[in-house]
Amino acid sequence: MTATVPALSVGPALRRWREARRLSQLEMAARADISTRHLSFVETGRSRPSPEMVLRLAEHLDLPLRERNRLLLAAGYAPAYPQTALTAPRMASARAAVRQVLAGHEPYPAVVVDCSWQMVDANQSLTIFTDLVAPDLLAPPVNVLRVSLHPDGLAPHIANLGQWRAHLLARLARQVELAGDAGLAALDGELRGYPSDGPEPDVELPGPGDIVVPLRLRHDGGELAFISTIATFGTPLDVTLAELSIESFYPADERTAAVLRERSRR
Length: 266
What we know:
GO terms for molecular function: DNA binding. The protein is of the alpha+beta class.
């Protein structure tokens, strides 16, 4: 017989999130405009919060929509935010918007990922990266962090692997802290076990001439340099949309831009 760990009830779950955000009861109560007594009663289970109170506290804890739904369920209420498959008819406008962004970014690479860093979509120019990766790492579901840092992935081709690896792991660590997701924590542990051929800075500091952390890729006997931006839906009310991110890569120098333009003409 397999033992199961019971889910936290809403009060202890709220307390856990408050402590994870390093907030005292007084600070949390002030943010949510309620009394510390009321908050204490909610956290200890002496008072059952209304759905509105759960969502108010979740909002001031800056919780993802998925976690807000879990808190509502823990309090005995229905989830407030739908989670719709991206392929569903009602998501047609969102799919079109994503494809428009991807197509409009050509001839530069762009990729869409979910909250677990699984690749959802990409434009054709992403092959500048994926052509360097072992085929088994590109079998669905494709995890872009694993592809980036695995020794059979992009890692051997990254000239500044230590710097780029530290940047990606710092992003993942912040996400683990924000979401408290066990799957992301396991991914973080896996990636930190991969080898690196360069020093990893504890703090991201700019190198000579750098204004962002670049991705420097060895390519055809030379080096390409990229900077990236991340776009999300501005006002998502669906869990799926809230968890999508579009990372767009731009050339950081003219040589990289020229290589990408030439590839698009083939």
